[in-house]
Amino acid sequence: MKMLEPPKNEEPMGFSRRSMTPGPSGSNQGVTLSWRDLSVYAVDRGSSNICKQIINNVRGVLKPGDLTAILGGSGAGKSSLMTALAYRTAPGVVVHGDIRVNGHPVESKYMKHHSGFMHQEDIFIGTMTVLEHLWFMARMKLDRRIATREVREKINGLLREVGLFERSGVRIGSGGDDKVLSGGEKKRLAFATELLTDPKILFLDEPTTGQDSNSAIVLISHLTAFANRGRTVLCTIHQPSSAIFDNFHRIILVADGRIAFAGTRDQALVFFSRQGYECPSNYNPADFLVATLAIAPRDEESCRRAAQRVCDAFLTSDSCKEMDVTLQLEVHISKAYHWKSDIFDDFKHPRWWTRLFWLTHRGFFQVLRDPSIEFIRILQKLVTPLCCHDGWIMLCWSSKYEPIGSSGSPRGPVYPRNREHVFPDVCHSLPFPSRITAVSQGKQGWHVLHTSLLYLQINIVVSWINCRACVLHDDNLLASRSQKYSPGIRTHSSRNDLHDECLHSLWMFLLGCVRDGSLGVGVSCAF
């Protein structure tokens, strides 16, 4: 089944988002990312007054053209540092510090528009093909004035660049399908998704996790080529092989929330050698550096003291002094020209109805292409009227009075059936997660929803309309049909005219809207 053709553009051709990259020297110039006095705190969920410091007053600089890796043990603060620099921290995380681009302070609005962020988890819709996914993301992220022909050429070029052009018609898959992308191909697709906007800064969270050595090397080679185009690339990585480690231009070692080293690979080995930690000749340098700074569970105190000594020694090292000179130079150069961080205000976001079109389009395709979910939903709609009707009739037989729900009147069983269809979240006959499966599934679905709301900057109202539209056909129409032909109701419902049936379906839809709105208000009040 093919995707619908995208709506025609109303703006002239020849426009590209790349022409709006800030800087004094044109769009082809890269940017330097620097930070100082940066601290990250995590608020305790049990008490809002207690904060745990994750990153402790660090500073650093990333130059264009460099592929930089953040290394460290588990819990050292690698991901926290990178998400803070990318302005993509989770709720409950407080960031304090000075983050600059080309020596000028920037805010989250700039970083979210001019940087890409590749997540560790897959946030794809498994029923979509590679080409459909890129088309969807292009229409959600690119300037609305870009012509369709330009978008098509850009997508085809990216597919060829990452080696997925021959796999453009293959469904992404969720792991249980027969013909899906491999783990390495999914990582390359995620990489191509971030390259749609040609970001000046690219952040990647554990890009090689879950891949074999060959797939990891292929992805790192793509990152190296992207950095060589004058882009700033920063990634967190866990236990890289020697072949992968050799591809990084610079590394940042994090230990217990502090910077233990920042510089080139060779400088790192020399620095640790001066501290008394000599790397064996046949040993992986990355494993050696991480193991030296790791906190052993059985000897935490001594390991922390050793890591703190290394961090203190780095503050007086030549590499740190070189980094401080670069930080001062960036601030000095920035005063030579006037640069506005909101220069991207000329960027034209896709209109809300365009986003609604593509969101609903994607939702319908997931519903139509996932028969297992639809089978469960239809079965629920068909079984629920039977259960409600039988329970109501048994209640009538066990009572000494003849209630209104007897065979002489259909109004009795109509009420519980409407209740079960309209308020499943209250009555627990139809669990709430089953209503979301048409658009998202499980933990992966929540990642998709979170990304859509935050990183694609989709309005919550547009997302809600999309969810309602994708499940409207079975939630309301099928529910009303199952009520009409349920036992004890058919003789009475068959005499209703078309006008009454339309009003009944409309009434079901309105009650569903009221239900969703009430649930949203309740959740908002709870949090």
UniProtKB/TrEMBL annotation:
Family stated for the protein in its record: Belongs to the ABC transporter superfamily. ABCG family. Eye pigment precursor importer (TC 3.A.1.204) subfamily.
GO cellular component, one term: plasma membrane
Name of this chain's protein: Protein scarlet isoform X2
SMART domains: AAA (SM00382)
Biased composition (Polar residues): 18-30
GO molecular function: ATP binding; ATP hydrolysis activity; ATPase-coupled transmembrane transporter activity
Chain spans, region Disordered: 1-30
Organism: Fopius arisanus
Subcellular location: Membrane
A Pfam family that the UniProt record links to this protein: ABC_tran
